[in-house]
Amino acid sequence: MISDFYDNDKHGVVRMSGLVCLFDGETGHPRTVLEAGYLTDLRTGAGTGLAARYLARKNSKVLTIIGAGRVARNQLEALAELFKIETVFLSTRSPQRANEFIERMSKAGGRIPKDIRLVEDREAAVRQSDIVVAATTSEKPVVNGAWLRPGTFVASVGAYDTTMREVDSETVKRASKLVIDSRADCLHDAGDFMQPVAEGIIKQDEVAEIAEVVSGARPSRTSDDEITYYKSIGVPIQDLVTAQHMARRAAERGIGTEIEIGGD
After folding, report:
1. For residues 101 and 70, is the Cβ–Cβ distance under 8 A?
2. pLDDT of residue 9
3. What is the pLDDT of residues 213-244, one digit of tens each?
4. What is the pLDDT of residue 138?
5. 153-174 pLDDT per residue, tens
6. Taking a C-beta distance cutoff of 8 angstroms, is the pair 23, 30 a contact?
7. Minimal CA–CA distance to 193: which of 232, 225, 219?
8. Percent with pLDDT over 70 in the chain
9. What gap in Å lies between CA 106 and CA 155, rounded to an integer?
10. pTM, rounded to two decimals
11. What is the rounded distance in angstroms from the CA atom of residue 182 to the CA atom of residue 210?
12. Distance between CA atoms of residues 60 and 85, nearest Å
């Protein structure tokens, strides 16, 4: 169960929150309850990381992130684990969020690069990038296909509705690999794909699910020059699997609180 309240900033609380409840597969009894907002952010970042493993160039070093919210932070954490990212260009309309993003990421440690720059010229940043991630809920494209240099991997992971759109039709047209997290959801609920299909730029059968790419049923990146594109709208099965991993690891480490919730 997820709630998304856009005015929550006025109350000093996060916009998105929720709960995941795991039930025993044999008895049906509830076993674990987890906070779902962070879990969903984590899953979204991991999903992009998985797609990038198959669709981005292995030597990718420059990353542009558009948006500076919770989802954006997990995008950087996931991609930094897989690539030797040296420079991050951050584009956002909110200076406050930008400062929070840079402060949080500078303290994250690990493989997070030190060079994170807030930029005003989004086009110039995209033109220099190996990987471009849009993590917004914009209704107008924030990525222009004409800006993309050969070899770029583009991921749009924030917009989730028919009225939202993070990349323009030229981006979709130029991409030689079009990959989504869920055919059932993206092709009917994501404006980033619905509009190019309606315009006749692409056909639905040209689009692959990430599961097909991972399994080898559909091709991954085949050259350093091709532009590739991944769209995530959010797949509940990924939340479920992530929750199962977290619950197992918490039990192994003795983390969490055990409670009685009723019965005889």
Report:
1. no
2. 79
3. 999 999 999 999 999 999 998 888 889 999 99
4. 93
5. 999 998 888 899 999 999 999 9
6. yes
7. 232
8. 99
9. 23
10. 0.91
11. 8
12. 7
Long-range contacts of the stretch 82-85 (C-beta < 8 A, 24+): 82/49, 82/52, 82/53, 83/52, 83/56, 83/58, 83/131, 84/59, 84/111, 85/60, 85/61, 85/111, 85/113, 85/131
CB neighbourhood size of 219 (10 A): 12
| 102, 132, 147, 243 from 108: Cα distances, Å | 10, 21, 30, 22
**CA 164/CA 192 separation, integer angstroms:** 7
* Amino acid code (one letter) for 248: R
Residues paired with residue 177 on neighbouring β-strands, in sequence order: 228
Q: What is the mean pLDDT for each group of 10 consecutive residues in the chain (264 residues)? A: 84 86 91 90 93 98 95 94 97 92 90 95 98 95 97 94 93 96 84 89 92 97 97 89 94 90 68
Start-to-end CA distance of the chain, whole Å, equals 27
Cα distances (Å, whole numbers) of residue 246 to 24, 49, 74, 109, 190: 15, 18, 16, 21, 29
pLDDT for the residue 64: 98
Residue 4 CB coordination number (10 Å)? 12
